[in-house]
Amino acid sequence: MEKQYKKLNIFYIPAVVLMILFVAYPLFNAFYLSFFNWNGYSQTKEFFGLKNYISMFQDKNFRKALINTLIYGFGCTALQQVIGLALAMFLNGKFKGRSIVRTVIYMPAMVSGLVMGYIMYFFFQSKGGVINDILLSLGLNSVNWLGNAHNAVAVIVFINTWQFVGVSMVIYLAGIQGVSQSYIEAAKIDGANSWQLFSKVILPNLLPALSSSVTYNLIGGLKLYDVIIALTDGGPAKKSNSFATYIANRYFDAERAGYAAAVGVFSFIMIMVISTIVNAYFRKKERDLEG
Amino acid sequence: MTPAAYLRYKKNKKKYETTTDGTVIFDPDQEERVPWRKKDWWRYLVSALLLLVYLFPFYVIIMVSLKTFNDTSPRAVFPHPIYWGNFAAIFKSGEIFIGMKNSLIITVGVLALQVVIGSLAAYALSRNQTKFNEVVRNLIMSVMMITPLTTLVGVYSTMSKIHGTSTYWGIILILSAFGLPLTIFLYTNFIGSIPRALDEAAAIDGAGNLQTFFMVILPQLRTVTVTVLILQGVGIWNEYTYSYYFLQKQSMATITLVIKTFFGSVMNDYGQAAANAVIGMLPLIVLYLFLQKYFIQGQVDSAIKS
Prior knowledge:
The complex is a heterodimer of chains A (about 290) and B (about 300).
Chain A: H1 2-6, H2 13-33, E1 36-37, E2 46-47, H3 51-58, H4 60-92, H5 98-106, H6 113-124, H7 130-137, H8 149-178, H9 181-189, H10 194-205, H11 207-222, H12 226-231, H13 243-253, H14 257-290
Antiparallel strand pairs in A: 1-2
Helix pairs in contact in A: 2-14, 4-8, 4-11, 6-8, 8-11, 11-14, 13-14
Chain B: H1 3-13, E1 16-18, E2 24-26, H2 41-65, H3 85-93, H4 95-127, H5 131-142, H6 152-161, H7 168-192, H8 196-204, H9 209-217, H10 222-237, H11 241-246, H12 255-265, H13 270-290, H14 292-303
Antiparallel strand pairs in B: 1-2
């Protein structure tokens, strides 16, 4: 059989060819371009060495995009885990209509991030937005949600969390229901209260769910693009950009394709390093728990 | 198992849907038997709040879509009278339906390509576990970490060399390439749980690799294929980044691009834009409501690592 399996490699050639053409070659191309000064369309480009990378760290808009990308990545991930787990625990209780609640909370994940951004624009507009309408009718002051950099970043984190927390919720729900009933019964017989039941019995058993939910949310958050484009387009004054939207901005609006490529390469390496560390951490945790 | 235990098992079996690796997720039908209890009042209160937080945005977009563009009433207020003109205009122009057609063609194309190419690749990678193939697998997985637009220039030059810009097959190839890592990940995990004895039995009967794959492995892949179709289908239907740059012709615009043009260029006519968003969201949401068990199951299966 092993001998026959040896011939199997031919089966992945179509996949590999497709990925070389549309992913690997373009990625190397971006790496190559990151050493040039190029406007994105002219025939000539000037060799720039490491200048793009050096000017990256002197660029305050880049540093802002870096910080925002980390906020979008880690902020959304943290919120999604806490809220997702809380929702899962809540929906694990028995009561009428809980499946309706579950269905509705997962529903926004069916909508494109771009369209959700547009819908939320109706809420967070400073004039005529639903949130400010409500604040005013309560006699409070209206808030400049999208025109203020801090608020805009917070709004984007909120929307992305709100939209995709259902994903974490169903993963945790499956995890909780996978915890053997006999463990729970045994803990109850030993007189565990509900907090002990949660922290000592259910939580340790959720490690696989936690690890996959975190990885999923983290990569999604660090690559955040659509919702920012729809809501602020990186504004005000480039202060809500993520790496993804900043790349688009440098490339098309500033016509600095070489520089955009350098930002792209940096972001790829950063996401790779972060997810490797996170994965290694969870793997170690899982081993510790087993051992 | 005692007969009584077996009967109990059979009775309860229907209530649970078992996932591929034996975890259990509750079935909506099961709750019919939960009685109303007074002490659950707080659960109903929290549920009502959650439903409000999650349905309110959908309510608002519908309200906006039912108002004229010069209606200055607050967005959350019910229109008086209801204005159907925005929807009438959509049906008259038909743009959104061309968008749906395009999205459907692209989605079906990508899914077909991914299922075939992805499952073949996964079979090779999970059965022939050499050091080299481990590297191939890791390289494929690392594609998930590429920020959108990093590769744009390179993809553009590939596309212009093969004359694929503004064609169905061009965008299908791009989106398939970027979606393959997830598909291959799901299939490799699943194929790993199919006993090799099945392959061996086929080999003894004289089947080659290709025959074994199509006759023995492929029929086993039904549940994981549903997962692939759902997860990738939602992603491709809602795709924006690459479609925006590679479907330049208006007649090729996908549903997301059609919605974008309404929000982008006629930013004053919110009613029209909102009506487009409502119609655009509808197909997937309706599908989800009817097949939610599969959608949620697919999400769970994709997350549970082997």
